[in-house]
């Protein structure tokens, strides 16, 4: 059975990855602007003063403009750094901070590294996803970093995943270790799952 789920996940990820790669620059720009507006409104409604957020890749809905705006408003932002052991370290984002290629070719901050428990102090987590289903279950990209992080937090604050509108789907294949999210942010909407408690 786990093999069936793994195969389903692989197939869905491949399809989603391909769809992302064929998006036009105009569609990407529009998605980035929409995501920024949605995330700005989410910050406002939650009153968060300390957040974690990922640095988007070229095919993800962009979080870069949102991050710059959050820093200008004095929000403390932690950015994830992948480790070989499957855990995430964190670094405090700065307006002029350097970005380098981390494990798996992902953009990651350069600077003082904080350990995995640093994220326990944030008010809101903004994480990447391949897809989110209507129950709040998240399909990640298969490395398990965010599932491990969410699963190990003593007191998990609200967690919102950023995806394109078409990636908010009826259902995603899930294993026991997969973690749900509090809500989803797309370029056109923010949706909070009423029954979700992490």
UniProtKB/TrEMBL annotation:
Catalytic activity entry: (6S)-5-formyl-5,6,7,8-tetrahydrofolate + ATP = (6R)-5,10-methenyltetrahydrofolate + ADP + phosphate
Binding residues annotated for ATP, in chain numbering: 9-13
Keyword Ligase belongs to the record: yes
EC number: 6.3.3.2
Sorted UniProt keywords: ATP-binding, Ligase, Magnesium, Metal-binding, Nucleotide-binding
GO biological process: folic acid-containing compound biosynthetic process; tetrahydrofolate interconversion
Assigned protein family: Belongs to the 5-formyltetrahydrofolate cyclo-ligase family.
Protein name: 5-formyltetrahydrofolate cyclo-ligase
Organism field: Microbacterium halimionae
Record lineage: Bacteria, Bacillati, Actinomycetota, Actinomycetes, Micrococcales
